[in-house]
Write a structure and sequence with these properties.
Distance between the termini: 63 Å
Shape: globular
Radius of gyration: 29 Å
Largest sheet: 9 strands, antiparallel
Number of helices: 14
Number of strands: 28
Length: 604
C-alpha cells in the first residue's frame, strides 16, 4: 500500500513536469500547466469539452478514469493515432504526456483536425459510454447509490427485495479509500469472488460535509464492521462468528469424550487453525474452507439497521425492551419477534426443505404467505401427540391475527432469559452473559471521552481500541495489566463516535448485539427512495413465485406495488407515485415536442 502511494505521487509529479513543457506546444502558458485542477480545466477548453471535465479530476477513483480520457484527447490533438500511442495515452497517460512533452516532432493540430476521423463506433458508443461511466461513478461515489435490501433484519420496515437509493449526503459522503476499482462493482466482480479493486493506492479516511448527523431512530446504511475478514466460501456468516461456533463444536466434542481440562482460549486457537486451513471442511456449510481475505473499510458489505443508541448513550435491553440512559423506548412500528404458537394438529405444516432455495421451512406455505410470514424464518419448537408448538417470526399485529386461525390455542412472545449467555452475542466473553433480549448495560463511546480501562471492561472496547479507532494496534493482557503496543495503559481516549444499531426483526437480525458498535467512519448514508420492491420465492413460495404476476395486488403477487416509488423518512414510507409518474409523462411529452420542433426546423 505504501509503495503504491509513493508510485502514484511520483506519477502526479511526472504529470506536472510534463504539462510544464507540453502546454506551450498547445499555445498555453507555462504556469498554467503546474496549477492542479486548473491545468485540466484549461485542457477541457482546448479539447472543446465542458469545464467540469477538469474539475472531475479532484474526485478520487473518478480521476483515474478522467486521466485516461484526457490522455486520449491529447493523443487525438497531436495526431498520435497508432494503437501503441492510444493505448499508452489511455492506460498510462502520465508516461504519454512526459514522452510527448520532450518529443521535438510533436505538433499540435487541435481536436478538429484529427486524422483519420474517429470511427462511428467511437463517436456513437465509446464516447457516450465513457461519459456515462464518469457521471454515474461520481453520483454513485459521492451522492446516491443503488442498494438492495439483502436480509430481513428490518422487516417489515425495509423488506427483502426492496430496491432503493442511499443518500450519501445524509451524514456526508466519504472519499473512496481504495480509489483503484472497477466501475459499478463494490468489492467483487459480479458473479465471482474476484476482487474488483486494488489496494496499491490507499487514501486516508476523509468525509465531506453532510446534511445532518446520525440520530436515534435513523435507518442507517454502513459498512459491516465484522466484514474486515471474510471466508469467501461462506460470506453470509461472520468470519469471527464462524471461528466461535467451530470452537464451541470442538469444545462440546471434547467434553463428550471426557476432556474437561482445556480452556476456551485453547479451543479458540484450535478453531482458528482449522478455519485457516483451506482444505478443511467447514462444518457450517459442508464446503472446503477455501480462501480467507481481508477487506478495507469502503469495500466491506453494506448493511442497513436502525440506530437505537448514539455516542455517549448507555444502552440496555431488559426482557426485549430497549432502554436508553435508563428510559424505556417504544418499539418501532413494524418490530418483529419470534412468537410461540401452540396448535391442535399441524396447522402450519411440517419442516421441509424447499427445493428452489435449499433452505428449511414450514410446509403450509399458503397459510404463512397469507400473513406474509417468511417460511424460512419459522420452525417447530416442540410437539406431542396432539399439539405442536411452532416458532413464527412476525409483528405484534400479525400475532394478534394468528390467534384467530382455526386450531391455534395460544400465542406468546419468545423472551431469552437474563443470564442465559449466547456465544454469538457481543462481547463474546463469559463475564458478560448477554443475549438478544437481555443485554447490557453498555456505554457507547464518544469522541474525545477518556475512560478508565481494566481487564473487566476491556472485552467491551477491545476491538475498538485495537482495530477500529485508530488503525491496527497490539493490545495484550498480562496478569491484571493491559499493554497497548507494548506500553501499559490504565485509560483510553476514543478517537471517533460510535453507534449501536439493531434490526426491527429483533430475533432474526445480525446487528450490534452480535458484533458490537459501529464506528462513524463506517457510516455510509441513509436510504431515502424505494423504486421497486419484489418478493423472493425462497421466503414467499406462493406469492413470490411468478415474475408474470404483474397485474396481481401487493398481497397476492410478486410485486409490492404499495412500496414502489416511495421515499423513506424515519423508517416510514411515503408514496410519491403520482408526482413521479407525472414527471415521467411530462419528460416523454417534452422529448416528443422537441423532436417535432427539430423536424419542422430541418424541413424549412
Amino acid at each position: 500500500m505504501f509503495i503504491g502511494n509513493i508510485i502514484f505521487i511520483g506519477l502526479i509529479i511526472l504529470q506536472h513536469i510534463a504539462f510544464y513543457f507540453l502546454f506551450p506546444k498547445m499555445n498555453l502558458k507555462l504556469w498554467e500547466g503546474i496549477i492542479p485542477v486548473y491545468n485540466f480545466i484549461r485542457l477541457s477548453k482546448i479539447f472543446k469539452k465542458p469545464w467540469y471535465w477538469g474539475v472531475a479530476v479532484i474526485f478520487p477513483g473518478i480521476n483515474l478514469i478522467m486521466f485516461g480520457v484526457f490522455g486520449f484527447w491529447t493523443a487525438r490533438c497531436f495526431n498520435k493515432t497508432t494503437t501503441r500511442d492510444v493505448f499508452l495515452a489511455c492506460v498510462l497517460p502520465y508516461i504519454f504526456w512526459f514522452r510527448l512533452a520532450f518529443d521535438s516532432k510533436a505538433e499540435f493540430f487541435g481536436p478538429e483536425k484529427y486524422i483519420p476521423e474517429p470511427s462511428e463506433f467511437i463517436k456513437k458508443w465509446v464516447d457516450p459510454i465513457l461519459y456515462a461511466v464518469v457521471v454515474v461513478s461520481i453520483l454513485r461515489s459521492y451522492c446516491i447509490e443503488a442498494f438492495t435490501i439483502p436480509t430481513s433484519s428490518l422487516e417489515k420496515t425495509l423488506m427483502v427485495g426492496d430496491f432503493l437509493f442511499v443518500n450519501k449526503f445524509a451524514y456526508g459522503p466519504k472519499i473512496p479509500q481504495t480509489p483503484v476499482a472497477f466501475p459499478f462493482a463494490h468489492h467483487s466482480f459480479p458473479g465471482t469472488k474476484v476482487p474488483a479493486y486494488l489496494e496499491w493506492i490507499k487514501l486516508p479516511y476523509l468525509r465531506l460535509p453532510g446534511f445532518g448527523k446520525v440520530e436515534r431512530g435513523d435507518i442507517t446504511v454502513f459498512n459491516y464492521p465484522d466484514g474486515d475478514t471474510v471466508i469467501l466460501n461462506m460470506q453470509d456468516i461472520s468470519y469471527y462468528n464462524a471461528v466461535r461456533i467451530i470452537a464451541n463444536l470442538m469444545k462440546q466434542e471434547a467434553r463428550s469424550m471426557g476432556d474437561t481440562a482445556k480452556s476456551d482460549a485453547y479451543f479458540q486457537g484450535k478453531a482458528w487453525e482449522y478455519v485457516h486451513n483451506p482444505d478443511n471442511i467447514n462444518p457450517l456449510n459442508e464446503q472446503p474452507m477455501g480462501k480467507i481475505v481481508g477487506r478495507p473499510v469502503d469495500k466491506r458489505e453494506f448493511y442497513v439497521k436502525r440506530t437505537v443508541a448514539i455516542a455517549g448513550d448507555t444502552f440496555q435491553i431488559k426482557d426485549g425492551v430497549v432502554y436508553i440512559n435508563g428510559k424505556p423506548q417504544e418499539f418501532p412500528e413494524n418490530v418483529q419477534h419470534f412468537y410461540y404458537v401452540k396448535t391442535v394438529g399441524r396447522v402450519f405444516g411440517d419442516m421441509i426443505r424447499y427445493r428452489e432455495s435449499g433452505r428449511y421451512g414450514l410446509s403450509n406455505a399458503a397459510l404463512l404467505d397469507k400473513y406474509d410470514i417468511y417460511v424460512t424464518e419459522c420452525d417447530i419448537a416442540a410437539e406431542s401427540k396432539d399439539t405442536v408448538v411452532y416458532r413464527l417470526n412476525m409483528t405484534r399485529k400479525t400475532a394478534e391475527e394468528i390467534k384467530n386461525v382455526p386450531g391455534v390455542v395460544s400465542v406468546w412472545r419468545k423472551i431469552d432469559k437474563a443470564g442465559q449467555r449466547e456465544i454469538t452475542i457481543f462481547p463474546h466473553h463469559p463475564s458478560y452473559p448477554w443475549n438478544n433480549d437481555n443485554f447490557g448495560p453498555l456505554w457507547i463511546p464518544r469522541k474525545g471521552i477518556t475512560i478508565a480501562l481494566d481487564t473487566h471492561n476491556l472485552p467491551l472496547y477491545r476491538k475498538i481500541i485495537d482495530t477500529y479507532d485508530d488503525g491496527i494496534h497490539q493490545v495484550e493482557v498480562k496478569g491484571d495489566k493491559i499493554f497497548y503496543d507494548g506500553k501499559p495503559i490504565t485509560s483510553y481516549t476514543f478517537k471517533q463516535d460510535y453507534y449501536f444499531l439493531m434490526g426491527d426483526n429483533r430475533h432474526n437480525s445480525a446487528d450490534s448485539r452480535s458484533w458490537g458498535m459501529v464506528p462513524f467512519d463506517h457510516v455510509v448514508g441513509s436510504p431515502f427512495f424505494i423504486w421497486l420492491s419484489v418478493k423472493y420465492e425462497e421466503n414467499n413460495p406462493v406469492s413470490g413465485k411468478s415474475f408474470l404476476s404483474i397485474f396481481k395486488n401487493s398481497k397476492e403477487g410478486k410485486y409490492r406495488w404499495n412500496r414502489v416509488f416511495s421515499y423513506v423518512e424515519k423508517g416510514r414510507l411515503h408514496s410519491v407515485k403520482f408526482p413521479v409518474i407525472m414527471c415521467i409523462i411530462a419528460y416523454i411529452a417534452y422529448e416528443q415536442w422537441k423532436k417535432r420542433k427539430m423536424k419542422k426546423s430541418s424541413e424549412k
